[in-house]
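Please check our next protein.
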Amino acid sequence: MQLKMKVLPTRKMALSNSSFLPLVVALPLFYWAFNLRKSTKLVLYVHDYLSGDDTSAITVAGKHGPQTSVLHFGTMVAVDDPVTEGPDPKSKVIGRAQGMYINSQLDGKGLHLMFSVIFTDGKFKGSTLEIQGADPFAMKEREFSIVSGTGYFRFVRGYGIMATQFIDIPNLRAILKLDVTVKHY
């Protein structure tokens, strides 16, 4: 028994492939035109205090144990810092920055951040932003990543610019300004 195969003419194949061209062009245009992503910009202030009655961060590990200064390579700090609307410590508290950072630069001048901003008041109450990235704190401004979020910020992606608003190195107290831009649904 012999099998017979039918060969389509080349001209018809080219015609059928060209009918997909409008679809290939239209799909990205529809996505762009009907993109439902929102953009949100926030300015937050994180009060990071490793000393005083209002301590919000502690050294948990380092070369010489928990007494190691955060300014030394390898030191790990756990944080539960207040997040406020303004730079004044008496500003309205709108959340907490909870997580950790580690001094990850051999000369001690850079941190790696991993923390959640948990909103406890205001429009975003119950939502979170997940922050991760390098913090070469000797620089005036540094950029970090927003890698995830919950609630209002579900499926978020974005970035932030961090600037040191106030620093007291001998007492290890700082106020950081976070200028955040995120895209989300």
Observations:
- The longest helix spans residues 21-33.
- The longest strand covers residues 38-49.
- The chain is about 10% helix and 50% strand.
- Strands lie at 38-49, 57-61, 76-84, 93-103, 111-119, 128-135, 141-150, 157-168, 173-184.
